[in-house]
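Reviewer 2 asked us to include a model.

Predict the structure of this chain.
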Amino acid sequence: MCIAKKHLHYLLRLIIDSVFKRCYTKIKSTFYFLYFMWKPFPFIKNELIRSFNMIFTNPFDLSDKVNDILLIGEILVDKIYINHAVKPMEKFGGSPANVTINLHSLGFKPQFFGAVGNDEYGDYLKNELVTRGIDINNITTFNVKTSIVTIRNINDVMDVTFDRASDYYLYYTNKLETALKKVKILHFSYWPLSKEPSKTTMKKVLDFAKKENIIIGFDPNYHKDLESLDSVGKDELMDIISKVDIIKPSLDDSKRIFGDGYSVEEYIQKYQKLGCKLIIMTLGEDGLVASYFGEIIRIASVAKDVIDVTGAGDAFWSGLYAGILQRESVLSALKIGLICSSYSLKQVGAITNIPNIKYIIKELTG
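Predicted model (structure tokens):
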């Protein structure tokens, strides 16, 4: 009798998955999203949703190419004013460059392609990488100023201004294409999509990466002050997002991309419709909500002390990629990202002192 029930259960499952798959997926995704977003019930834990497919327990599909990850985009100096300080702290910055340093600290060998100016700031940025043992042969120096971002943090209210001069001098070269052929993961941000020649370069990079079956991660760190006459239009941006495997927008990013007035779930559905496999909506102190092939989970933040949020997003990306490259489950990779982010929140500036991935995994499992 028990065996017959098992067979019946299996048969019903096949019918649901094959005949009503599309409707079934939408219904169960909505149910589990609401289940985990309904906060008034204290017994609801911020852990893996008990979904039918348990897809978050699987590792990300990773190729066996020889190199780990290639990052392309902005490298710059952050000038940070805390409260009413007269003199700023000058820190290494630029999201893909920060992720590069963090990944190196975690024990990986990232490749970074970027551009700096022919000035003391450009020298400073390159020296920071060299002293950490990171190759700078793919960083080009141009006879312009190095890009600078000024951040004024007054009572946790952020005011950001951009002085862009070098970061968008990115060109598609044989050297870049050769490097792309050998990597498992490609990472980029919104910055190179907002000016030429980097916009044209990134379009070529993405087309080539899709042909090479490279996992593509996109940080849509949009800011209205990044816009120029060269910036991608909405249709162009939607096309770019459709080529992406992993995207990590904040709620604010999503409002800028799709407009205001949608719930977190509705934003996630918009990214799903564009074809993104793994969508990670960061919610600040409330942790994150992630969708992977239609399944949704919510995971709480593990941060206890918050001093500066500047590098938290970059640290999360670093941990996420580390988990994927270690062939951990998607759930574990997300948690590793949160752990790395918690390290960043305890420090000032975008560069985070993150320990080796082996230590992070022990912290995860311990």
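The first helix runs from residue 2 to 19. The chain is about 40% helix and 20% strand. We have added this to the supplementary material.
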